[in-house]
Amino acid sequence: MNPPEAGSRSGRSRLVRPCAVRAPAVAIVVMAMLLTILARTTGSGWLVVMASGLVPLFVLGAVAPVVPLLRAGVTLGIPPHAMVGRAVVVEVTIDGRARGLTLCVRDPATGWIHGEGPSSGTVPAVPARRGVWPAIVVELRSAAPFGLVTWHRTVRVPLVRPLEVAPVPIAGRAPLSRHDPRGDAAEGGGSRRGGETVRGIRAYAPGDPYRLVHWPATARWGDVMVRELDDDVPPRLVLVVDLSGDDPDAAEELASRAAGLAVDALAAARQVVLATVEATGAVTAVVETPTDAGRRLARAVPGSTTSPEARPGDVVVRLGATGDGAHP
Fold first, then answer.
1. Rounded distance, CA 25 to CA 149, Å?
2. Domain boundaries, the chain
3. Model pTM?
């Protein structure tokens, strides 16, 4: 089995509690009561012996599941980043001798799976919320060996590398200027031409602007030569994301909108600057890939971020409490 991208330290917790009394346990109790009543009515010693035998069976079956729960330790291997609603593969390792266990990961959520220790395997898990998870909660259950009473234990497994869950991008068109009708309203903008950088010298072609004529090369070669410039450079997109507010659902929608705009701009080979607030304070930095943008937005928390200094030609889009749309 390949090693996981991000591991965890083994999680253990000694707090074990019963969570369900199963049908066989109820049947044993009822049977013991009936045998006791019949023994008193008939005076039969065998019925007393049978009723007395059911008591230790019940006690043993009710307490025995605690043993595998206390023996089991859990280690998780999970990628360091994920996206809300999209499954990731989690490697689950059960340490110690334990039989008859079922377990599930709470968030990112998995279904209930059967396991015995020591063993390991992989299960798909689906994150339900955006954010950063330094630890993941795992619930263990056992009713072994007789299935009379189910006990459970909750284990908090700390991760070596926190899991960063990015928002789901909402498809959007990143604007190219303040008045671009294709996308969110913005400040500034406009393509800046690459006329400052000369790629080379070539012969004149009909339609070339007069300003591109390279006179020294023209005089040397005897033909009209022009400078070949870099292509137009699309404007840089600056996303200012403010997740402040009383509505957490609105904040998640803002994060998803920001992710969609970043993905659209990066697909067009535009540079994207993301300004957010993290637990350590305001952060403004360039994101180079959709994954980088998602991880930055995963770490974003409510708070007013400072507006970054925009360069000439930058397109600034503000999302959140700072207001959506164009500003004078």
1. 7
2. 16-164, 198-229, 234-320
3. 0.73
